[in-house]
Amino acid sequence: MNIEIKNKIIIISSPSGAGKTTLCKMILKKVKNVILSISYTSRNKRLNEVNGRDYYFVSKEKFSQLEKNKYFIETSSNFNNFYGSPVSNIRKSNSLNKNILFDIDWRGARKIRKNFSKKDIVDIFILPPSVKELKKRLIKRGRDSKNEIKLRLSYALDEIKHYNEYNYVLINQNIHNTANDIIDIIKYHDLIKNNDKILNKNLKKIVYF
Fold first, then answer.
1. Domains of the chain
2. How many CB atoms neighbour CB 12 within 10 A?
């Protein structure tokens, strides 16, 4: 897939219950030069979710049709539901001259890495403080049955094994501290990018004075 990206692709992944979605919402509120890549999904809309804000909710048939038409940069399947990031989100970030944030799993992250240069990607994996704490958080959410929690925990343990595929790994002991750590990482990469622009613009003047 040949798509130019003007700014950074920020990927945040974590096992279910580690705080990824909450962290993404906090970052979007605090960092003005980042937009969210809103995914499509075939799962049912949950209470308080808004179509077009949290996800684009479509049928499995519609999702498959979009996938066949190469509408997505990446797709994955979780708990018998489909998820996909549309190519148009990248074009939107380019037109707005902003970084783009992907709230996706490790499989989606792998596909993003295959389509874009490593220098354009900032990938962060969020770990829970412990497996015990992760189970506690999944129960506290109160939206899954005992069997579903057991399944999610099993899946989460498998997801955790992929943490070493990411450049940054953070343990989410405190949601506010973790959000600030992510913001610092984003600012660091913005600083490098801006410095490179200034350097490239003025290098010849400095070297060949």
1. 9-184 (3.40.50.300)
2. 24
Distance separating alpha carbons of residues 46 and 73, to the nearest angstrom: 25
pLDDT tens sequence across 122-140? 999 999 999 888 888 888 7
In which residue are the tokens 């890549």 written? 37
- pTM, to two decimals: 0.88
Query: Looking at residue 14, what DSSP letter applies?
Result: -
CA distance 50 to 56: 8
What is the pLDDT, as a whole number, of residue 91? 93
In sequence order, the β-bridge partners of residue 142 are none
* Paired tokens of 129: 């403080």
Cβ burial 130-165 (10 Å sphere, 16+ → b, else e): eeeebbebbeeeeebeeeebeebbeebeebbebbee
27-32: long-range pairs with CB below 8 Å, 24+ = 27/101, 27/179, 27/182, 27/183, 27/186, 28/101, 30/179, 30/183, 31/183, 31/186
Q: What's the token pair of residue 82?
A: 């489909």
